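Internal ticket #5521
Category: modeling
Description: The requester needs a full-assembly model to guide mutagenesis choices. All entity lines are attached below as received. Residue total reported by intake: 730.
Assigned to: D.W.
Attached entities:
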Amino acid sequence: MIVETQTFQYPGRLPLQSGAGLDGFSLAYETYGTLNAARSNALLICHAWSGDAHVAGYHADDTKPGWWDEAVGPGKAFDTDRYFVVCSNVLGGCSGSTGPASPDPATGKPWALSFPIVTIADMVNAQALLADHLGIEQWACVTGGSMGGMQALQWAVAYPGRVRNVIALASTARLSPQTIALNEVPRQAIYADPNWRRGNYYDGNPPNAGLSVARMIGHITFLSDDSMREKFGRRLRNADNYGYTFEAEFEVESYLKYRGDAFTRRFDANAFLYLSKAMDYFDLSYGLPSLAAAFRAVTARFLVVSYTSDWLYPSWQSKELVRALLRNGIDVTYVDIESRYGHDAFLLEVDRLAELTRDFLGRQA
Amino acid sequence: MIVETQTFQYPGRLPLQSGAGLDGFSLAYETYGTLNAARSNALLICHAWSGDAHVAGYHADDTKPGWWDEAVGPGKAFDTDRYFVVCSNVLGGCSGSTGPASPDPATGKPWALSFPIVTIADMVNAQALLADHLGIEQWACVTGGSMGGMQALQWAVAYPGRVRNVIALASTARLSPQTIALNEVPRQAIYADPNWRRGNYYDGNPPNAGLSVARMIGHITFLSDDSMREKFGRRLRNADNYGYTFEAEFEVESYLKYRGDAFTRRFDANAFLYLSKAMDYFDLSYGLPSLAAAFRAVTARFLVVSYTSDWLYPSWQSKELVRALLRNGIDVTYVDIESRYGHDAFLLEVDRLAELTRDFLGRQA
């Protein structure tokens, strides 16, 4: 399946949750499958923190497929024979959409920290304009894991008439203080890098050392105590015996360093900061008397999935969400999948996911 | 209770686990209570990563007492009316004992990274020389939490005739890969600070930005998801509404930043690195067919305590230790204390600890 990334350009003003606004923006997106004549089979996949629009298939020059290829394609969990699948890179990101690395039209130079803070609600409002552009009045389903799940929930809340089903994986209705902490420390690691220069590094060396440390923290939170024991144990990389040095000796050390460094070749540090703040601010109960109050106008059906070893967005957060949905009499199915893979399970437990999505979406089809 | 830190100077050579050695070293230590005539009531408290010899009471200029004052004193968990309590700063540290910030006798300049790697076994061997100096042939009890618990276990294994009881709190017999990962990322944060200069910062600015980030990671691991919700929730620091900036807004953010920055005023970054490596290398089963094999010669009785919400040294690690002790027919009592305080529980759940230590030590007295 050869696919291409397309770009949606919106020339008008996008008002933002903060009160600021963007005069024009772009979203990179990809589509898979065919929109039916009734335009009723569109399915939106929202990506997580470091994801992009390239969810499945191959670009002409790809050596490996999109980030969720195992779940998206003919006959897969998100079946492109049945659904017209759309995936768009988020506003504020750095993979083809407008974000802090994009040129500020007023100056022609990268926005850097003068880019306005965007929220999950802003990302979804931008996606809604993309949906208009694609002629999609209502999504058959909006889905995503982690930050993608937050967008899916936000869609149901902000555009009740435009979403028939929501599938939220390894996600939450509001970030916990532990997760805010696990976003703040990576930010501090970037701020501490002198190359960061308060975000103005685009004409010099980027803050790769800080960004690498930031990403390493992330990788710890994506795995679990169990999966790390299975994957690495206390194995040494190149020797049978301890070297008694500060070189990376344990396999887990070199894995983290490798993943941290690799990340700096594909991600912009400022975009990383902006997306982390978007998540921190995500709280569907913000300004409301309760979380349940957030879902009063919602009409979509929900499939909520958590994973037993996910400690970044633990199962209790999905249960809290489910209780708030039930309080409103909303049709919700909840599954807590037994898994050792931690937060990454939403990407890895694809067989179980395929069963669930087929049964959940099939019920209505 | 006014106390003073004393210094033990050992002039001879201390062979190290790595094969290197130290020609002379110092240990800072404090004592509380009175050694009885039979010299049978000595109790050693081993401190954790960032601790020091000042476990209880007040120095003449103190505004607050030692780090475990609630647990150490007359009638407390470690009762100074009954025990002669000793606490020594570890070898490799920076609070009065020889470590990387100390002058290398060969050059007169700070060792920095030319200081040899020390292990938990080396720390304990140095403490054994302090015990000789104090005329203590056998400890009534060796205890500690976290890295302090590792030292207590190492004492029982390395000096079976010199330890009657071990009380190991929130600890482990070998570091898990997740904990190694949670040590490696803080190290990388320090390495990434240009002020670190491969450890040679003693004549310039220390790598405080890196050390602060390192410590912030630590603080997340000391707390629990639950305790963070209780302590901070999603509360904002100075406002009712989001500010949409990169300033610290959530209380949890400013707490971490404050703790990270405060740490740089009392701790040496290189010492932080050395102690983290000492923990990573800690594995009582290293070079043995099993963990049980490590305890074959052990004669001490054990009280092993874990805390249900401690995810840095989770209960399964204490259970693994208990099984290995039982395999050798060793007298061991295990308690998994229900607590919301995470790893910090070993410092905070003092009332329950007092009950346990009185009953455990009283049984033999």
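Resolution: model delivered.
Comment from assignee: The longest helix of chain A spans residues 120-134.
Ticket closed.
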